[in-house]
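Please decode residue identities from the backbone states below.
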């Protein structure tokens, strides 16, 4: 018997929203029970907010020459005798406010990290879906490529991709092209984890009744993969993406510190650490110390959040 239209509308109107269902979920209950997860989430949210609001909360734009004054060069932090406001964490040799530089550097590091995760997850999820669903020679070829890449450290893969691309393009890259190259290099370094995880989940899901039913009614393989299988394998992907965000930020900082990443005109945390390292033994310790602490705090907060998410989504720990 069909449900009357008024009753159907009333049932739809009283259906809880997705946000309400999340607040009533086991995942949110696990989050509320973990003080460490809440602290990590608060720290991560604060650092993301600082990065987004950097142009409005910074004392200066540290990369606008019109706002720099050499008279303010090499000032120590405010709590030391020669410290001056508003340079709370001191200045560098160009008169740049270190705190403002950290805000701007964190902004670029997060942009590179997030874009790198998007690239790596897109490649890995796509190849994992294809390998797990197609099987046979396609699966073997993709997994052997993944196995070969796993024999090299991620930072080495990023260095190879970056070096080959710069050699092929003659080394003449503008800032946007340099940023895109770093993102692609990081993306190609971390796709394997997504591919292997998604492949394993797809091999389990493709034998279930709902996939067989989709085949019987004539749905194409891409439709089955994207609409039906993919939503059921996203849990592990979120965990990998959270942890890989921290790894992507570290990889960008390492590349920049080694001089093969972003140039000094693009203030990522790695660039700031490389610049400040030149002054470490001359007494201006704050130029490298505070960007290093900001990088460590950002990576630690994201890693703690990823560890909690991994445990919360693991059914064996429930």
């Amino acid at each position: 018997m069909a449900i009357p239209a008024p009753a159907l509308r009333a049932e739809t109107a009283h259906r809880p929203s997705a946000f309400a269902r999340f607040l009533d979920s086991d995942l949110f209950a696990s989050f509320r029970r973990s003080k460490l997860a809440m602290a990590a989430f608060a720290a991560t949210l604060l650092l993301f907010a600082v990065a987004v609001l950097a142009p409005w909360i910074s004392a200066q734009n540290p990369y606008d020459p019109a706002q720099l004054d050499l008279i303010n060069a090499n000032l120590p932090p405010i709590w030391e005798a020669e410290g001056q406001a508003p340079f709370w964490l001191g200045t560098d040799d160009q008169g740049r406010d270190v705190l403002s530089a950290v805000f701007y550097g964190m902004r670029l590091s997060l942009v590179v990290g997030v874009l790198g995760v998007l690239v790596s997850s897109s490649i890995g999820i796509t190849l994992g879906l294809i390998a797990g669903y197609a099987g046979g020679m396609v699966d073997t070829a993709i997994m052997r490529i993944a196995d070969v890449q796993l024999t090299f450290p991620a930072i080495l893969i990023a260095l190879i991709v970056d070096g080959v691309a710069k050699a092929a393009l003659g080394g003449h890259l503008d800032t946007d092209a340099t940023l895109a190259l770093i993102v692609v290099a990081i993306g190609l370094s971390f796709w394997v984890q997504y591919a292997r995880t998604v492949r394993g989940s797809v091999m389990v899901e493709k034998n279930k009744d709902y996939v067989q039913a989709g085949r019987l009614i004539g749905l194409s393989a891409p439709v089955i993969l994207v609409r039906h299988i993919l939503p059921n394998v996203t849990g592990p992907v979120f965990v990998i993406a959270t942890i890989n965000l921290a790894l992507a930020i570290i990889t960008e900082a390492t590349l920049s510190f080694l001089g093969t990443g972003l140039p000094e005109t693009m203030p990522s945390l790695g660039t700031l650490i490389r610049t400040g390292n030149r002054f470490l033994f001359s007494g201006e310790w704050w130029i490298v110390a505070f960007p290093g602490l900001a990088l460590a705090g950002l990576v630690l907060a994201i890693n703690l959040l990823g560890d909690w998410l991994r445990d919360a989504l693991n059914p064996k720990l429930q």
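Observation: The chain has one domain: 33-53+96-317.
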